[in-house]
Predict the 3D structure of the following.
Amino acid sequence: MKGASVGYLTREGFRNIWVNRLLSLATIVVLVSCLVIVGSGALIFLNISSVLDLIEDQNVVMVYIEDNADETAMDTLKVQLLALDNVSDVQFVSREEAFERQKAAYGDKASLLDGLTADILPNAYKVTVKDIEQFDSTVATIKQLENVLQIHENSELAGKLASIRNAVSYISLGVIAILFFVSMFIVANTIRITIFNRRLEISIMKAVGATNSFIRWPFMVEGILLGLFSAVLALGIEYGVYSVASIWLSDVMSMLGGDVVSFNEYIWYIFGIFVFIGVFIGAFGSILSLNKYLKEHNNVVENQ
Amino acid sequence: MLNLIQFDNVSKVYADTNTKALSDFSLNIETGEFVFIVGSSGAGKSTLLKLMMREEVPTSGYININGYDLNKMKKREIPYFRRTLGIVFQDFRLIPNMNVYDNIAYAMRVIGARENAIRKRVPYLLGLVGLNSKARSKPSQLSGGEQQRVALARALANNANMIIADEPTGNVDPKMSYEIVDLLNHINADGTTVIMVTHDLHLVKTFNHRVITIKNGVIESDCPDASHIDVEPYRFENPEDAVGSYFVEEVGEDLDYLVENYAADVAEEVAAEDVSSVTDFFSEEGGEEE
Ligand SMILES: Nc1ncnc2c1ncn2[C@@H]1O[C@H](COP(=O)(O)OP(=O)(O)OP(=O)(O)O)[C@@H](O)[C@H]1O
Ligand SMILES: [Mg+2]
């Protein structure tokens, strides 16, 4: 296609949108709604993720050491722990430290511990686990090691966190997939109506020898433009919605000891996703409709 | 002379209804001919034209149009092949919200013509069909005959070397029919081949060209002129009307043209008699129209 033609065809695409402005508007509203839902889903996912990260970071296993282990044995244990794939950090907690912490935890009632010494407590390693999903097997491995007295772990929490994360990502994916098809259907339908409105022009184009790509282009442009407009609009609306939601979210998040995920940090990702989804849906929606039309109505001469 | 249109033993069966529309059909048309195709409803005339423009493919047989072997033609070559044809419809097919100029320009735009080529070509075509003064009119502001002339200009926009018209006068009255075919005649005189399907035997008689009669999917007769057709030719009371208002300034020239080229007897009558006293053909025989 020559430069002049691309300009002409693109103008035709804009003209289609303008000629069907009510329908275009309705399509944009639906597309924007879908994108905002997708974006909100992504932001909710990001926030849940960051909470999970927070909790996971605190996900430690206390590995208590046999009293009769000497310095070398303890060092060997540390090396063995660090060598495990799923272990990110190993910190030594001496019985004295633990005792002090215990006292602090008792607060006013610290006097109850009077007369007791740190000797009642074992030395320990505070082990941080990387992947919460492999928590159980990691714990089992640690139990096999020498000089391990006992393990204090909370595998139930670990399991719950992992399944929450999974559920959240599956639900998000499901919602996105459904909305994706809904949007595609809506755009295809809009283009179908445009095609119907312009069937006279299409039959003339075929009669005078316009190529199929020439016939397609304005409808593609129309679909892509609808997608682009929707992406830009959805980004603005998402920003507004999230700013309002953040006020409420930040309370929840600070309770959990974290911060709300900042929109600005993800703005380009979100915009990129919106544009990608919008343009993809726009282009494919129109191709779907047009191919169907060109296949079914291949006649040039028949009266309409 | 070059064979522009060649059908060798072509058969067409519509699979869905199992209708045999054409049977073992052979036909040659040479460059520069003007051919009327007549026959009763359902005879296969439209099917013949659809095969010519590669809207339908034959069930068997060989078709060559304008040097294109339609049997071997790939789908993506069809648009380029169609540019060598000028297709005219019975229902004009003008775009209602575009003016006359843009309707003609549209045919050039959609094949990617440059705007300055369009600016040169469209006024020339408007002049050819005598509608320069109507360039800014919408189709709804034109008579049926004028609309069909716009459609003709559009069919010629991309330099087609043949016009294929399926009942182009089917929707207009006899006077306008005459105008349209008269224009086709002018175009034909410039070298463009014209294939026209019609039910109007008066027109066929008036313009006196090669006539192919189709019956039940086969050629019943193929005559070089209309001498075998037993109907009255059209005559008009007012020769200015007869040759169309678009040639007003060249009426004299046009009468000469009529005498020279076709319907010689009509034109002679018109020219010989006192113009105002020629009987109005339509007031007498209008009832004969189908
Ligand atoms: N697309 C089609 N599918 C099935 N049958 C068809 C199709 N087009 C035409 N026919 C049949 O083929 C036969 C020839 O039709 P065609 O349109 O060529 O006739 P025609 O001579 O143009 O008639 P008319 O003067 O009424 O326009 C008819 O019996 C018609 O019913
Ligand atoms: Mg027909």
Observations:
- The pocket of adenosine-5'-triphosphate (ligand 1) is lined by residues B 14, 16-17, 19, 21, 39, 41-47 (CB under 6 Å).
- The longest strand of chain B covers residues 3-14.
- The mean pLDDT of chain B is 83.
